[in-house]
Amino acid sequence: MKYSFNKKIIAITGAANGIGRAASILLAKEGATIIAIDKDKKSLNKLQTKLKKNCVLKNINCTDIDDINKNLKNIKNIDGLVNCAGIVPQGDLMNCSIQDWDETIKTNLTSVFFVTQYFMKLFLKKNKGTIVNISSVASSIKGVKRRFAYSASKAGIIGLTKSIAADYSKKGIRCNVICPGTVDTPTWRKRVLTSNNPSQARKDFNSRQIIGRVAKPEEISDLILFLLSDRSSFVTGSVYNIDGGMSL
Ligand SMILES: NC(=O)c1ccc[n+]([C@@H]2O[C@H](COP(=O)([O-])OP(=O)(O)OC[C@H]3O[C@@H](n4cnc5c(N)ncnc54)[C@H](O)[C@@H]3O)[C@@H](O)[C@H]2O)c1
């Protein structure tokens, strides 16, 4: 069976960079129209140059419910949603400020609640839809050092995914979650370059995966494509580690 995304409309948050950008490019290549949602306007414009007419830009801050309601109201139909927008703050319990905690939960978890609730109304109108959430191995899957607030937010996404699957799968709406290991994206490169010893940091990141390297964003988007497509029609509420063996 071939993938069929012709005439499908897929909304992707965090579409402007990294994993979300790679997923947008792959899905557009397969025939989908992308509703590209991101707060980074400059990078969204670059995505549009690449995708041309297969892309509708939505410069939205996903933590802002009013921004979501105002800027998505002309979207009347979608087939799939990928919740990919996120941040990767570092630090342990004792150096996590209330501001760090609030910002992380708001950006990584509350935004998924806002955006999914918004689009669920459209899915429920036709009793069909697929949702793919992006969590992380650093979550309820595995304890990773200095990822305190981040891991809490990403564990929340796993719980949220299973709850949505339990409530809506009978209505034709599937919801699954992907937990990547380390992926070579702009924010990951920044983490490496701003560390005390970038060359050692790169080595350490590579060795976290048993495969011995970090993933390319395109290796994550292949799984996103599968979970959005009808080829995964019996899959819901599932948690997919895609981590080069990091969680072993
Ligand atoms: N890169 C990794 O190693 C890795 C590993 C596991 C999970 N993840 C997860 O994958 C997702 C994508 O990460 P990435 O590495 O591609 O990051 P990235 O920084 O390259 O891309 C994230 C995008 O999300 C957007 N964004 C952030 N906050 C937003 C908000 N409030 N509203 C709208 N857009 C917002 C950013 O502008 C950016 O374009 C994140 O949820 C991250 O936690 C990444």
Task: Supply database-style keywords.
248 residues, alpha/beta, Rossmann fold, 2 domains, 7-stranded parallel beta sheet, 8 helices, 45% helix, binds nicotinamide-adenine-dinucleotide
Write a compact overview of the structure shown:
This protein is α/β, with parallel strands linked by helices.
Can you walk me through this structure?
With 248 residues, this protein is an alpha/beta fold. It is built from eight helices and seven strands, in the order E-H-E-H-E-H-E-H-E-H-E-H-H-H-E. Helix 4 (98-126) links the parallel strand 4 and strand 5. The longest helix has 29 residues, at 98-126. The relative contact order is 0.15. The mean pLDDT is 97. Residues 13-14, 16-20, 38-40, 43, 61-63, 84-88, 107, 111, 134, 136, 180, 182-183, 185-188 line the site of nicotinamide-adenine-dinucleotide.
CATH architecture annotation name of the largest domain: 3-Layer(aba) Sandwich
Gap between N and C termini: 32 Å
Topology as H/E string?
EHEHEHEHEHEHHHE
Name the beta content range. 15-25%
Helix segment count? 8
Please bin the fraction of helical residues. Answer: 40-55%
Number of domains: 2
Small molecules (ligands, ions, cofactors) in the structure: nicotinamide-adenine-dinucleotide
Strand order of the largest sheet: 3-2-1-4-5-6-7
Average pLDDT number? 97
- Category by helix and strand content: alpha/beta
Instruction: Write down how many β-strands occur, each being a DSSP E stretch of 2 or more residues.
Output: 7
Stretches where pLDDT falls below 50 for ≥5 residues? none
CATH superfamily of the largest domain: NAD(P)-binding Rossmann-like Domain
What overall form do the CA principal axes indicate?
globular
CATH class of the largest domain: Alpha Beta
The name CATH uses for the topology of the largest domain is Rossmann fold
Major sheet: size, sense and barrel closure?
A: 7 strands, parallel
Q: Specify Rg, calculated over alpha carbons.
A: 17 Å
